[in-house]
Amino acid sequence: MKSSLIIGIILIALGSAGLIYKGFSYESKETVAKIGSLEASADITKDVEIPQALSVILIIAGAGIVLVGLKK
C-alpha cells in the first residue's frame, strides 16, 4: 500500500473521530499552595475541545490525498 493512501486514511479517521467525540479531557496534578516545606496539590480536570472546522478540513485533506494516491 502506498504511503499517501495510508496518510490519507489516517487523516480521514482522525477527522471522523474529531467530529464524533468533539473533544477530550485529562487530569493533571498541580501545586496550589506552597508554604515552606508544606505543599498542597490538587487534581485538576482540563477539557480540550476539537474545533469542527479542523475535523472537516482533516477529512477533506485525507480524501484528497487518497484520491491523488489512487491516480498515481
From TrEMBL:
The chain crosses the membrane at residues 50-70. Keywords: Membrane, Transmembrane, Transmembrane helix. The keyword Membrane applies. This is DUF3185 domain-containing protein. The lineage of its organism: Bacteria, Pseudomonadati, Pseudomonadota, Betaproteobacteria, Nitrosomonadales.
